[in-house]
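Why does residue order matter? Because the sequence determines the fold. Keep that principle in mind as you read this record.
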Amino acid sequence: MRRTCATVLWRTACRDVGLRPFADSSKRSYTIHMRTFFILGIALALTACDAWPTVVDNRAQGPISVRYLHQDYNYWSAPFPIKAGFAMSFARAHWIQEIRGLRIKDAGRDYRWSAAGIAHLASACPSSEFSRRLSSAGNCYLVYLGGGRLKAMADLPTGLQYEQIGNGS
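Structure:
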């Protein structure tokens, strides 16, 4: 089989290392490239399956209860309690950029954030749709300070401690 390069300048270098031009590629190498591309595509798609990107950190004096409205659903999440000093993630693959509303119940008071308020919080945690789908975007930490005060940050808050969920056994 004759091995040549596309340009005359590289002919000797290509011959020395055993390269051949793209136009001379066989069906076998095309199949190998397509198979590799397909496997990499599936691997990248599956990386987004285990992202828990939005975290609520309760820095208030007492326990809180959190509910949120995701853009893909017409109903609010079930309320989930978070003890003081602990944190908990939203559901899998629920990014702050996809949240339309947030409710936090603290000491009998109900605090609400609309889509505009959430968008302001999300600006602290920038990410693109592409990076979120590949799970390469960082987490967004919503730190609740009590009294209806909420701040968002992309950096891991100091002293973050996740609340353990279990069935008590």
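The CA atoms of residues 85 and 162 lie 9 Å apart.
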